[in-house]
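Please, structure for the following, as tokens.
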Amino acid sequence: MKKDILTSKKAQFDSAHCDCHPERIRRVINTGVLLLFITLFLLAGSAKAQRIKATASLDSANILIGDQVKLFLEIDHPKDVNVQFPAVPDTINSLIEVISRSGVDTFELDDETLMKQIQAYTITSFDSGSYRIPPYWFKIDVDGTIDSIPSNGVTLNVYTMQIDTTKGPTDIKMPYGAPLTLKEVTPYILGVILIGAIIFFLLYSIKRKKNNKPIFARPQKPKEPAHIIALRELDRIKTEKVWQKGKTKQYYSELTDALREYIEDRFGIRAMEQTTDETVESFRRQKGLVSDKNFANLTQLLQTADLVKFAKYQPLPDDDNLSLVNAYFFVNDTKKEEQKKAEEKADNDENVEEVEIK
């Protein structure tokens, strides 16, 4: 009996072990490896996803009506992960307006495998209250697997200005005066200059009319030196030689007139209005104007001319020539020193040129 029982158990054991075929064993092993690979892949993707972080922030959570604030959307992720930023509409929750948006800026983090991307939005609101800005979803591509990751939500508090109803309506800000620019004041400056020019012209015209002078006149040419005018007149008298034509009185009148004009311009003695004695007396009182020789020659010439003009004196031909020579001598010897030096320098330059030419 006991032997039969043992024989029966052995048969059952052999039958059970006979079912473990090698092909079935290989299938079991392959299935286990596949499950292990899938588990490792999911664990790797989960680890990489855990390194991606999306954040939303405001540079100020509290503003006044109409003020502007920055909303930042940023995401930290590995460099081999592609990220698509969310599309933020022009109006958030129908009460927050997006004024402008920047491009996406990229920064490298301390970990060389990670990077940060930020996009800024300028927002405002014209209604007071507390407004919730919802989370925004970033699309990510992890090794061909498309997924999404949300940012956190933020709250914007918009406050109104406290109004004192006892004072009535007032502006939010008092108006301020802008500084004047040169473009704005230039017309006034030009207007003042024009008015000043007109007033000056009127006063100038009235003054010229009172003095019986024309409003516009050509500038007078500078007067020639006294000795130049006198020598030119003496040259004319010498060329015409009227004393040789029997016009002795005319000759002495022209000769003395030329000398008197020279004396008046050169010495300031009113010789054209004075008699011979008065002119001689003027030179005698102002000693040092001329030398004794020049004074004697001038006195002799003027007195001879008076005798010819008023006493019908008939001088000899030699006396006529001597009077002309004395006139030349008086002018050349009494002209101003500055003029003498200039003429001497010119003469010296001419002499030097003549020597060089030779």
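DSSP finds nine helices and twelve strands in the chain. Residues 22-50 form the longest helix (29 residues).
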